[in-house]
Amino acid sequence: MNYNQIFEKIDDALKPFVSDGKISASIPELAMVDPTKFGIHLLDNRGNDYAFGNSDEKFSIQSISKVFSLSLAFQFMGEQIWQRVGVEPSGNPFNSLVQLEYEKGKPRNPFINAGAMVIADILISNLENPKEDFLNFVRKLAHTENIHYNESVALSEKKVGFRNAALANFLKSFGSIYNEVDIVLDFYFHQCSLEMTCKELAHSFYYFANEGFTKERIKILTQSQTKRLNALMQTCGFYDESGEFAYKVGLPGKSGIGGGIIAIHPKNYSVATWGPKLNEKGNSVLGMKALEFLTTETQMSIF
Ligand code: GLU
After folding, report:
1. Candidates 156, 157, 255: which one to mutate for ligand 1, based on the most atoms within 8 Å of Cβ?
2. Within 10 A of 35 (CB to CB), how many other CB atoms are there?
3. C-alpha span between 254 and 273 (Å, rounded)
4. Residue with CA at minimum distance from ligand 1 atom 4
5. Sign of the torsion angle spanned by Cα atoms 116, 192, 44, 285
6. Cα→Cα distances 7→16, 275, 294, Å
7. In 210-258, which residue ranges form alpha helices assigned H by DSSP?
8. 89 with 108: CB under 8 angstroms?
9. Which one, 145, 241, 246, 252, has least CB within 10 Å?
10. Which has the closest alpha carbon to 295: 6, 27, 24?
11. Closest to 66 (Cα-Cα) out of 250, 253, 235
């Protein structure tokens, strides 16, 4: 497949949408990003790289990090992990408190903030140096040492993270997290502050396209675990717009409010896009459109 040619077409097709959407205002530090950026990187099952636009620029991966933390926690706990967090789409905003109240402190899924905090809690309990070990896990996936937390973004989020602090305290009151609230929040803000390029993301998510193995043949998940996390990304990966993403794009994936999206075509490719302006549901406008064009143009989706 000549993805380079397809990217040229996608670029044309995106033109009518370049002024749509808004940069996330929820974390002050993120609002400083150039809104005109756009990049895409695809890694296919033969190990070929296809890149377009600003695909080699670092950006804040935010909620995309929740898939990395879940993968590592899944390694530690296996199926028991689902006793602490569910696998159903929430149908609510990612930082909602309401659902947590009537479901007695068990988050609906690991991709809403409450769920990601429970996963962070599991990692803190299982890792010797949680932040450092988690960073090393992501570096192993991406096959590069050049991945870092952005301390200013983590601090910026901490300063305005009243709702996340409320969620963490709420979880603690239900006994859903075992470690100190401040430690869980600090880990969570750091994981969200990770900065990566589209290329690094496409490479580090390759195990979802490759039955659990990285490009370098390191086993991260079993085949069955890979299938399960792909299913979760499909049903819960796009906030309150996961149905729309499945309908229009037809691939499992995960987005973040930094404007990144990762999507997987199991056995075929992993692809990452970045466009900082978001729609009202919090997903990148250009990223969603680009992936819709990609699966339409290639006539390949999982359905
Ligand atoms: N750190 C962000 C928050 O908790 C992540 C949001 C996201 O990317 O969905 O609000």
Report:
1. 157
2. 15
3. 11
4. 113
5. positive
6. 16, 14, 8
7. 223-236, 242-248
8. yes
9. 145
10. 6
11. 253
CA atoms of 103 and 219, how far apart (whole Å)? 35
Which domains occur in the chain, in start order?
3-297 (3.40.710.10)
Neighbour-count burial for 7-30, b at 16+ CB within 10 Å, e otherwise: beebbeebeeeeeebebbeebebb
pLDDT tens, 231-241?
A: 999 999 998 89
Q: Please report the pLDDT score of residue 46 as a whole number.
A: 95
Please tell me what DSSP assigns to residue 210: T
Give 139's pLDDT tier (boundaries 50, 70, 90).
very high
Residues contacting ligand 1 via CB (< 6 Å) = 26, 62-63, 94-95, 113, 157, 164, 192, 256-257
CA 278 – CA 63 distance, rounded (Å): 14
Looking from the CA of residue 113, the nearest atom of ligand 1 is 4
Which of 253, 257, 260, 210 has the alpha carbon at shortest distance from 230? 253
Separation between Cα atoms, residue 164 and residue 297, nearest integer Å: 40
- Whether residue 51 is predicted with pLDDT greater than 90 in this model: the reply is yes
What is the C-alpha to C-alpha distance for residues 206 and 216, in angstroms, rounded to an integer? 10
Helix (H) or strand (E) holding 41: strand 39-44
Q: How far apart are CA 261 and CA 242, in angstroms?
A: 12
**Cα of 146 to ligand 1 centre, how many Å?**
23
Compute, in angstroms, the gap from residue 255 CA to the centroid of ligand 1. Answer: 10
Whose CA is closest to 62, among 243, 201, 255, 302? 255
Summarised one tens digit per residue, pLDDT across range 73-102 is: 999 999 999 999 999 998 777 778 898 998
